[in-house]
């Protein structure tokens, strides 16, 4: 019986060893194809990191970047280059249509790159998120980056620089005042590219990897979602909704739908940047502390250190969470302006139109409007009293030895101030401060 068990176990281990050997052989014969499509942004970098780990784990013999992009974030492209430089296996570029701006930089970062007929590479001038050109310092830095990466791979650095700076001219290619963009044939004639191919299979033939198994990497749902959330336009909309619903929540009684929607909007903003690695816990914790300080400030008379500290913390947290300080400031300013205008219009025009009727008291509870109360407080009209508690805007006022729940006429009133009843609307007793 023991002998039979030993034989079965030996056969099992032998079969497992053969399967592992076949798997490793198949993996070592594979080439990973990683798409570089759409905008190059931090969300895509997360996908690239995961794809490179998978390729190394399975023993792939090469990486191919399939490039078709209008460009993207310079910082993201530089981080991607660092990842590619650390790889122990060759990386090839396959430009299938366009490698512009940061896309041209990534193509130059590969060991060799090939272009399909009708493709282009170039137009790498950096621009601000708000539009327009960057300052000379940034332009000079990016030009040096393009020159350096071209030189390190044996390509003409002047051509790479002319893709960045309009002031450079290349005889027969581009005049002063124009950015250089090369076609497939121009790039091959200038030996700027490594050739023209019609497919990835042809590229593999060119680099001596014909017959390799191609494995196509694709982004997961969470990688696509996080990348979408940190898009500057989407991130600005999230901030705008967060501030808008926060304003609505502050101006309505209790905690309701507006507060919940504000939390979701801010959560998506910080969550997207956190998942992509753009920001970390410090910005999230700073934002939470800022909100806590603002809540504390709401229960303290006036506007003091908690209010100032809370606003500062919220602003700094939003800027720190963004992909860059400039981007954060821009998104913050735009969202504050738009949300402020939207909140003003909402309360001015929708308050009595039904859209906000369910959460805002828009009618006075007067007898003329059909309201009646079990007690008539109209006899208090014109009477004077002393505030027992602060009115923000509600609080307690003592009149002729009796205490009543009253509302200020809109201004903050501290305790111990002399007031006069200016209006009575059913249960609503409104007072105003008596000027000394």
How would the blueprint of this fold be written?
Blueprint: H1 2-28, E1 30-37, H2 42-57, E2 62-69, H3 74-85, E3 91-100, H4 102-109, E4 112-115, E5 120-122, H5 136-152, H6 157-162, E6 181-183, H7 184-189, H8 200-206, E7 213-216, H9 221-229, H10 232-250, H11 257-275, H12 281-298, H13 305-321, H14 325-349, E8 384-387, E9 394-399, E10 402-408, E11 418-425, E12 428-433
Parallel strand pairs: 1-2, 1-7, 2-3, 3-4, 3-5, 10-12
Antiparallel strand pairs: 5-6, 8-9, 8-11, 9-10, 11-12
Question: Can you tag this structure with a few keywords?
Answer:
single chain; 436 residues; alpha/beta; 2-enoyl-CoA Hydratase, Chain A, domain 1; OB fold (Dihydrolipoamide Acetyltransferase, E2P); 3 domains; five-stranded mixed β-barrel; 14 helices; elongated
How would you characterize this protein structure?
By secondary structure, the protein is an alpha/beta fold. It folds into three domains: 30-219, 2-enoyl-CoA Hydratase, Chain A, domain 1, CATH 3.90.226.10; 225-349, no CATH class; 378-433, OB fold (Dihydrolipoamide Acetyltransferase, E2P) (Beta Barrel). Helix content is 47%, strand content 16%. Strands 1, 2, 3, 4, 5, 6 and 7 form a seven-stranded mixed beta sheet that branches. Helix 2 runs antiparallel to helix 9 (221-229). The longest helix is centred in the first third of the chain and has 27 residues, at 2-28.
